[in-house]
Amino acid sequence: MTATGIRRLILTRHAKSAWDDPSMEDHDRPLNDRGRKSARALGDWLASRGYDPEEVLCSTSRRTVETWERVAAAVFETRPALRLEDGLYHAEPDAMLDVLRSATMNTVMVIGHNPGIAAFAAMLPERAPLDPDFRRFPTAATLVVDFPADSWGDVRPESGDVRDFVRMDGRQ
């Protein structure tokens, strides 16, 4: 739970997806085995730190939805509301910010795609994490950032305070 006047964003890139079928549409690609394990590990990590999303804004692609389903298998205090957003599929940072500003709860998870999510993550904090992988935002990477704001509409770039950054891409 976040304090009054604070909004917490849990920003996640989908876990590793499968490329087995070259005829498959990009939107329909599922997670591969490593991705399924990483997504579940991410859910456990979030739950162990008390990062319980109250609302989830997720791209409509199969790999982002499957990432959320695996993350959600962790034991959170409450089951968050899920909102599938077409506008997050391969979105640019400004479009992601617009979607985020429509959120209604204090702690929100956004699940999306690169390259937009890496650029979005980079524009949010006042000071970026020192992790060398932060700028490339690998699969299953997650940034937890707090904003001094009474609503998501008040959130501005370069105003976030980084709480955590983790990579769950199976290569740690």
Could you characterize the architecture of this molecule?
The protein is an alpha/beta fold and 172 residues long. The chain has 4 helices and 6 strands. A 6-stranded mixed β-sheet has the order 3-2-4-1-5-6, sandwiched between helices. Helix 1 packs across helix 2 and helix 3 crosses helix 4. The chain is globular.
List the helices and strands and how they pair.
Elements: E1 6-13, H1 33-48, E2 55-59, H2 62-72, E3 81-85, H3 93-100, E4 107-112, H4 116-123, E5 142-148, E6 161-166
Helix pairs in contact: 1-2, 3-4
For the largest beta-sheet, the strand count, sense and barrel status come to: 6 strands, mixed
**General form:** globular
Q: Assign the structural class, choosing from mainly alpha, mainly beta, alpha/beta, alpha+beta, or little secondary structure.
A: alpha/beta
Q: What order do the SSEs take from the amino end to the carboxyl end, as H and E?
A: EHEHEHEHEE
How far the N terminus sits from the C terminus, by CA atoms, comes to 28 Å
Count every helix, treating DSSP H or I runs of 4 or more residues as helices: 4
Query: What strand order characterises the main sheet?
Result: 3-2-4-1-5-6
